[in-house]
Amino acid sequence: MQYSEGVNVAGSARQIYLGQQLRDLRRSAGLSLDDVAERLERNRTTIGHWERGATRVSAQDLEALLTMYEVSEELAEQLRELRRDSHKRGWWHSYKLPSFVKPFLSFESEAVEVFNFELGTIPGLLQTEEYARATHESGRLELSDEELREWVEARIRRQARLDPGGGLTLHTVIAEEALRRVVGSPDLMVRQIEYLEEMSKKSSVNLRVLPFKHGSHVGIHGPIMVLRSSDPHHGEVAYSDTPLGGHIIDDSRDVAELSRLYSSLEAQALPHTASYRMLRTIARDHVSAKE
């Protein structure tokens, strides 16, 4: 799978969605980046930045592109609205978070469904505050006490969208190793798993456990996250978190492949009731481990 379309910028979801649309329109028109750059008297890099959502296209340049691509008035107005709204700041901008995290939070804030497989950790949307703190304390970045507090607060704030009326549904498959790995302490893990049990009762959370006994699987190399918007004009996107930072993946072929891999993992995972029983078993094992 190629990640050449990954976006590692601080642009908003709307800015990146607009870039996706402009890229697709250019390709449908049979034009290259060089063709567009020549007609607009811009350089190729500028056009590429617009399409990746790295920079905001001006109103004048957008109109020139819409004319060049012969866009219908209905779609043109949708793209103008995307541009107008692309500069709006979300709640996450009040927190001291790395720039690579902000595009992801922008997409998540607009998503209606998230599909998340986790191999080594509890999904961020289902972490307790103390688990989130423990993972950040042992993470790849050295954080001050204030930065750590803000990271944890932001992670917990994201969970509000899973509450009634929040508008978000989480589908998640958690590998058994993530549940058995002791983060912080066995007591902390017991409380974390009890929280998972509570959250799994929500209609907005579809939680499955992938047990060791099912052997090798397509997610063995790492996590998967796909975000789906309610707007049919906005394609699904995926997010990849690596030791070097996070990347939005917006190439439709790559996102479709990640969606397929998630579906495969969900099919291998235990059904809801059996997953709940496994959570209880693993919680008891953590209790036994501390005795």
UniProtKB/TrEMBL annotation:
Residue ranges annotated for the HTH cro/C1-type domain, each copy included: 22-75
A Pfam match: DUF5753
Gene3D superfamilies, per database record: lambda repressor-like DNA-binding domains
GO function terms (MF aspect): DNA binding
Origin: domain of life: Bacteria
Transmembrane segments: none
Protein name: HTH cro/C1-type domain-containing protein
